[in-house]
Amino acid sequence: MTNFRSDFLKILTERGFIHQCSDPQGVDGLAAAGKVVAYVGYDCTAPSLHIGHLLSIMMLHWLQKTGAGRPIALMGGGTTRVGDPSGRDETRRILTLETIEDNKNQIKTVFSKFLAFGDGGHDALMLDNAEWLAKLNYIEFLRDVGRHMSVNRMLSMDSVKLRLERDQELSFIEFNYVLLQAYDFAELARRYGCNLQMGGSDQWGNIVTGIDLGRRMGVAHQLYALTCPLLTTASGAKMGKTASGAVWLNEAQLSAYDYWQYWRNTEDADVARFLKLFTTLPLDEVARLAALEGAEINEAKKVLATEATALVHGREKAEAAAETAKRTFEQGALAEGLPTVEIGGAGLKSGLGLLSLFVEAGLVASTSEARRQIKGGGRKVNDQLVTDEKAKLSESDLTAEGVIKLSLGKKKHVLLKPV
């Protein structure tokens, strides 16, 4: 996959986005002619996407930026009602229609940072598969679509096979997910001329099933599959997971400052790879930053953090996060840009337990974890080391700014503000 004519596949190759492609030369020809119509599906299982979704979002971004064609962001208002079994060890929780709709509306907001929407030939589209899935008649669907699907093939797919091999329950509703996703591809092909589905490597089986279904249902043009790798960090950890949970893209779920900090804490061995994947910096600049060694690699990490945050939260918030970190870590200031958690002012008058406050601030998951951190010397209040696990905080601990600063190690800080 090296001698591509299109800028789209050249960039995806150089930056490390491509895992598998059903027909590289076919996709390259369409991209060179500006005729790709590609979609990625996003189920609405939470009110925000997380950075595990960023690879496919960036693929849509590069598709549009290089003039290769039209990107489609498909909201799973219909498929979320079923639940994708891919990569799961247990059945997904069934969400109410109201929750799915609310999640969908919140998820939508991130795409405007990466794609330009409109009515032009290469302008992005945002669609919802509930538009066609919610209207399906079950008997007609079995007759017109289900007859083209092989149960033998479905049982051989990793998303199904692995669950069965582990004797883990796979519900009938989940078993049907692959059929619905395949139908999405065929429907988008018929309605919008879609010819390429992209996604993570765990979606390969679902995507090629959609190609086969489209052919069997009479889609006239060729359909293609393109997947990106499922990333892990250099140490083997799953990308986008931290001790406190997922690294969300929406600011309501994760502050711009905490998002910046996630990238700032990248392992040395991952800096070059993440600069290629999660920023739009020119590759010669990426190479310059990747060549930094020793303590200088921290400068590359700061650039990664600022550029990655700028894409999701905007340049102003990214630079504010960088400045907050600089004041907090390098100058020892009580930076105003730190995440703030409101606490009851009345409770503070009588004294609030330190352990529970660390939990409320989101720095630890439980009071037992807070106790262990204190014993290990990892907790500070207003930059002063805490050794008494039974300590209480009161109004006397408020700084001149009217807040209390809690710290976990050197890099995680939260301000408590009484209300």
Produce a short descriptive summary.
This protein has helices at 7-15, 24-32, 54-65, 97-107, 130-133, 138-144, 151-156, 158-165, 172-175, 177-192, 204-216, 256-264, 271-278, 283-290, 297-313, 315-330, 345-350, 354-360, 367-375, and strands spanning 20-21, 36-43, 69-76, 125-128, 196-200, 224-228, 241-242, 245-246, 340-343, 352-353, 379-381, 384-385, 392-393, 404-408, 412-418. With 419 residues, it is of the alpha/beta class.
Distance between the termini: 59 Å
| Class by alpha and beta content | alpha/beta
Q: Report the oligomer.
A: single chain
User: What's the total helix number?
Assistant: 19
The overall strand count is: 15
The 3D shape can be described as: globular
Considering DSSP H and I runs of 4 or more, what fraction of the residues is helical? 40-55%
Radius of gyration computed on alpha carbons: 24 Å
Percentage of β-strand residues: 5-15%
| Side-by-side strand order of the widest sheet | 1-6-5-2-3-4
pLDDT under 50 segments (min length 5)?
Answer: none
What does the main sheet amount to?
6 strands, mixed
Overall mean pLDDT stands at 86
